[in-house]
Amino acid sequence: MLAWIRTAIAIIGLGFVISRFGLLLRQIEPKSEPATGVHFSTITGATFIAVGILSLLFALWHFLHTHHEIENDAFRPSLLFTLIVVLTIAGVGVLLFIYLLVVG
């Protein structure tokens, strides 16, 4: 559970940094108009924060479920849980990679 908490804090922190760094880049950009509206960095940062919160909730559910199974001597490791986490993180990584290639 502690590993999940550390990971969620890191994901939430990264989301905040992405959002604020995008704002900083927009503010120092030489333009005559002020930066307004919702930008990709804000959406990406908010998404990371939401994923961090959801991972905390999912980790709590998984912990309680596993604890219940251990107490009842019915514990079996879940391959599906591991696959979902790995594929989700890989998918986000691929989308960010494509974005960086396209936008520059």
UniProtKB/TrEMBL annotation:
Entry's localization field: Cell membrane
Q: Does the keyword Ribosomal protein apply?
A: no
Q: Which InterPro entries match?
A: DUF202, IM_YidH-like
| Annotated ranges, domain DUF202 | 2-68
GO cellular component assignments: plasma membrane
Query: What keywords are assigned to this protein?
Result: Cell membrane, Membrane, Transmembrane, Transmembrane helix
Q: Which residues cross the membrane?
A: 6-25, 37-64, 79-102
**Membrane topology label:** Multi-pass membrane protein
PANTHER family the record matches: DUF202 DOMAIN-CONTAINING PROTEIN (PTHR34187:SF2), FGR18P (PTHR34187)
Indicate what this protein is called per its UniProt record: Membrane protein
What is the species listed in this Swiss-Prot or TrEMBL entry? Ktedonospora formicarum
Q: What is the lineage of its organism?
A: Bacteria, Bacillati, Chloroflexota, Ktedonobacteria, Ktedonobacterales
